[in-house]
Hints:
Layout: H1 4-9, E1 17-19, E2 39-44, E3 47-52, E4 58-60
Parallel strand pairs: 1-4
Antiparallel strand pairs: 2-3, 3-4
Amino acid sequence: MINLEEIKEQEIDLDKVYDYVEFPDKISGRCGNCNSAYFKSSVKGGVFLCECRDCVMKKSI
């Protein structure tokens, strides 16, 4: 399991889909990478995916 402090210390990989439980929003409704509030959302295979439209960071909820 990845620790939140470990993710903060390392650079965020924008090709990876992060799990919301392991990497929650620092500020609710804002991207953890660029602090944007502009997202696109999709559901595939029963998984809700939230993607930042500015930096393309993805989280599964």
